[in-house]
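Before the break, one more example. Copy the sequence into your notebook; we will annotate it together after we see the structure.
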Amino acid sequence: MANYLYNYNTYDDEEILQNYLKNDMVEIYPNKEYFDAKEIFNMIVFLVFASKISADCWSSSLGYPCCTSTNSIYYSDGDGDWGIENNQWCGLPKQINNAVCWSKALGYNCCTTTSEVQYEDQDGPWAGSCDISDSIRGDSLAKAAPFRMGVGLYGTSKTNSPIFSKKMRDIIAYQFNSVTFTNLMKADQMLDKAASQANAKNGNDMPVLKFDSIVDGLEYCKANNIKMRGHTLVWHVQAPEWFFRTGFNDNGDYVDKNKMEKRMESYIKQMFEFVQYYYPGVVDVWDVVNEAVEISEGSFDASTGWNTRTKYDNNNKANPWYATMGPDYVFKAFRFARKYANKDVKLVYNDFNTFMSQKTNAICNLVKKLKAENLIDGVGLQSYLGPSWPNRNDYKNAIQKFSALGVEIQITELTISVEDSNNKFTSQATHYSDVFKIYKDLKKSGVNITSVTVFGLQDHYLFYDNDKTETRLWDRNLKKKQAYNSIMSVLKA
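Here is what the structure looks like once it is written out:
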């Protein structure tokens, strides 16, 4: 459970750090006079993992506090049971497993054969029994599909990620060969505000990243030979405003173009260095820029030839990337990504409503410009579809038009909503079948569809309060829906 902080800028007073390391690491490195940045990081990780439990608060020796206000187990490993307080890991005292059987007072037995948390409320963590046997044997989407099959990992924090459900992990490992964090890899999760502000005060105006929100998912992918889609590097949403402002302060002025360009490069560089060094080959595709094309009047710059987004949220908010860097921000992002990406990593432009003709044409113009500099490998079509919208021929034609540019086609966030009827799930299954027939037929015709990702695993997602979503392939009890079976029929035909 290492607290990954892979950023050399964190340590502004190098002399203090070097003295600390020489004093504390003398037994391990008796003749070492100087430690470079990579050695510093490796020693920190070594010390965290090599520490032994020597007190009741066993997690303190690993660099984490003991839990003081929760007894809920979110994760267990060889060190012990872990909880979460204030969105940070904490160690649950060893005696917690011998605690009072609190659920008896509510009329429920205590669990004796499972520690898997299926639901948690103000009373405590509850376990449940979902029979997933037919999802972890027999048919597999990943094995049947002629392209990579991915799934979106929902969760807005470490506390509600499917990675912490063993049954969800088992289904994903059997059914899919790719995952995408829907939120946990975005800038608002990756940026460390306090550390960035400390940097700025010490004259280093580059951002500091933290990786605790994604490490568990990366470890899971590495252990199960699953690929992860990097989502997303540059997006105007879920990028905190302070990232674009002087001193990383909420009330600061926007920084100038040159400074923001350096911050962008630093951010992208740190992301690539971390995942490529510690998880080589796991993240082999990135949505470099997300939703930079706009067609709503008053929200785009038409002078670029590809309708560069200037505003969002019904023209109420400025695109901070455009506000600080101008329309070049998209090209700068792809240039930095190409600079730091390993040669086998694919770079993708990702957007929604890509089938609307005006947007299709604008994206094509952008892709042509990026392709002229060898900066792009694929177009990502998010594909939030309704029962009858868009017209499926329009959707198919857009895919063909992008493919004609010589790039990969990747379906990145596929969902199909239900109609308001008594047989809504039967109809939904038909719509999923029709869409996968399009993918399969286009693939056979030579269109280079390389991946399809369904965005989410489970309807009424267990770890969200009052989630009513019904677009996914498994129901709230982790049973395959008709939509799953209809897709499998198409893939096996």
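The two ends are 44 Å apart (CA to CA). The chain has 14 helices and 18 strands. Try to locate both features in your own notes.
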